[in-house]
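Example 293, ligand glutamic acid.
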Amino acid sequence: MTSAGRFAPSPSGELHVGNLRTAVLAWLFARSTGRRFLLRVEDLDRARAGAEAAQLRDLVAIGVSWDGGVVRQTDREPLYTAAISRLESAGLSYECFCTRREIQEAPSAPHAPQGAYPGTCRNLSAAERDAKRAVRPAAIRLRADVAEATVDDVLHGSYTGVVDDFVLRRNDGVTAYNLAVVVDDAAQGVDQVVRGDDLLPSTPRQAYLASLLNIPVPEYAHVPLILNADGIRLAKRDGAVTLAELGRAGVSGEDVRDILLSSVGLPAGSLDHALAAFRPAMLPLQPWVWPGV
Ligand code: GLU
């Protein structure tokens, strides 16, 4: 399988200019390194009717193209189940019956990093599990035997972050993002992950999980987010930030493409044209402030 990069939006609503900028950068990273570029719709959770079609339409409008068909996570449950079964057979998972509230209120384990699962259900006896199963369905957690892991990032260098017993499958049966993303990237031959740097803190967990599944860890590049004029992460409430809204204000998809390209110092006109000038090292690490229209 040839190597690939990807863009993996969650179809929870329309993409805003920050998501579109990440897509452009992921495309540039992949194409400038001779990789295929794949599109995966992460629709296990938070999918909204019509959002996928709008997202694909907007990507096309700014010139982002992808190879092959669109892959949807809801079509791939057997792959996730197989991975979870492998972990289970290796003794690397356990059932967890905690509610969110119980987790918040539990005393944290000694030396455990903040926000890490306190391990309440890690060592339940079979009888305790049976009793709890009668009350509520179990989530499946990873049995991690490290507390942190280090990843390399093209933009951030070496990054160390928390690895805890994170959820692989929620107690409503939905596969967790951290498991699905690792399994999908490997199955699709994705060896370059370019995405927003809000996901950098999850990356050590994902890289650790990949190592347990004997999956090669991809190259990571976590790109800066986009902020509003108040220095806060850009959101839908910040005026015209989706292509549809910008279109109503007279700003076309091509205009947005050019604004995004110039935000990273690239020439306007087309993504192919910008590609020739693109160097990952030229990317500013600071967030970019959306100039607004
Ligand atoms: N689906 C995730 C999001 O839209 C991105 C996942 C990823 O790129 O790994 O936030």
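Summary: The longest helix spans residues 17-32.
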